[in-house]
Specification:
The structure is a single chain. A hairpin with a 4-residue loop joins strand 7 and strand 8. Strands 4-3-5-6-7-8-9-14-13 form a 9-stranded mixed sheet, with helices on both faces. It has a 4-stranded antiparallel sheet with strand order 10-11-12-15. It is about 30% helix and about 25% strand. It has 2 domains: about 325 residues, ANL, N-terminal domain (Rossmann fold, 3-Layer(aba) Sandwich); about 100 residues, GMP Synthetase, Chain A, domain 3. Helix 5 crosses helix 6, helix 7 crosses helix 8 and helix 10 crosses helix 11. It is α/β, with parallel strands linked by helices. It contains 11 helices and 21 strands. Monomer. GO terms for molecular function: nucleotide binding; phenylacetate-CoA ligase activity. Pathway: Aromatic compound metabolism; phenylacetate degradation.
Length: about 425
Amino acid sequence: MSSIYWQEDIETLPRPQLAELQLKKLRESITRALRSPFYGKLYRELNISAESIKTYDDVRKLPITTKDDLRACYPFELLTCPKDNIIRMHCTSGTTGNPAAVLYSRHDLDSWANLMARSMFATGARPADVFQNMSGYGLFTGGLGFQYGAERLGCLTIPAAAGNSRRQIKLMQDFGTTIAHSIPSYLGRLHAVFLENGLDPIRDTKLERLFIGAEPHSEETRLRIQEMFGAKAYNSFGMTEMNGPGVAFECSYQNGMHLWEDCYLLEIVNPDTLEPVPDGEIGEMILTTLDREAMPIIRYRTRDLTCIIPDECPCGRTSRRIDRIKGRSDDMFIIKGCNVFPIQIERVLMRIREIGSDYLIVLDRNDEGDTLTVQAELKSESFTDDYKQLDALRRRIANDLRDEILVTPAIQLVGPGELPKNEGKAVRVKDLRA
């Protein structure tokens, strides 16, 4: 093992050889997929086989797979091997109907753990680190994905799970945690608990790295997290349908997430036409698993919006990088004729020093049409009963948001901790128009 790479031969594979490897693995994945009831029926009707794929671009001949397809295939219609070979399942969240369930063989779990170890290693994590996982375990993939990756890497691993901030802080101090994993929205709340207890996470912990993901977040949020904790915050991307975390991860340069192309085939397309877009242009990500044994998924429509970063990374890894997730194609809302993504609003709020980490976008309707209200928590040091001061801040935020989204929202400033909190992913939009 080199000092920089977890798997140097794979991570630095020249692009032509990497494309050959992907084509070989894509054909193998199609052959496996044909064993499943879903793909077997679909591909035979369309006369698709591994031999249909002559070149890399032929992947576009294959039909798109959607989350609705996965839900309709629940629980076993995508399975390509005997049930006796399955040793775990995870599934997406969902309150109605079937979730999208993913089934794993031992090979699949081993491949996933290796990708997680590779991802963490790329940021500078090493076996001597103490890793604290502040993520939910269970059906959510974030907990066990990082757990097995950190163990594969050789770290002392603390499976703290989500919530219970005072215990999180005690574990960090008692065991000398150097790396922690969390959803971004929780870290603002954790920082507040540090301060409430007279502690400074920079002075009173050994934190060096934070792994953040599972929620779309702006660069402004990442910079704020780094400032609060005095630690580098590395962006990651994953989704249950593609195993979980570890699909793409930043390296130590923090200039985009390396998508591990030996295990995933990446396309960026126009979300309306599904045609490819040029590198550097934002589009929707289409992903294909290349190393999934039990349940390969071909051309999955992720709904996540990003772009390919066209230049090479100084780290020497040859896998293409994607930019941070800009939002989801189905997250966009239309207000007064303007297309708005929640992350645009977050980007503005996180640049305003008086505002804390939590906010809520409320969409409603009155006799005059649709309304947009942004509720934002003040930092404790900015909380005041000075009406003139608060009104000036409200007007400043409204003007900044108008410049960004072309709509002037109503602004409601609330005290620290007053907005509702979720243990899992933060709810950023509340749409009451229906």
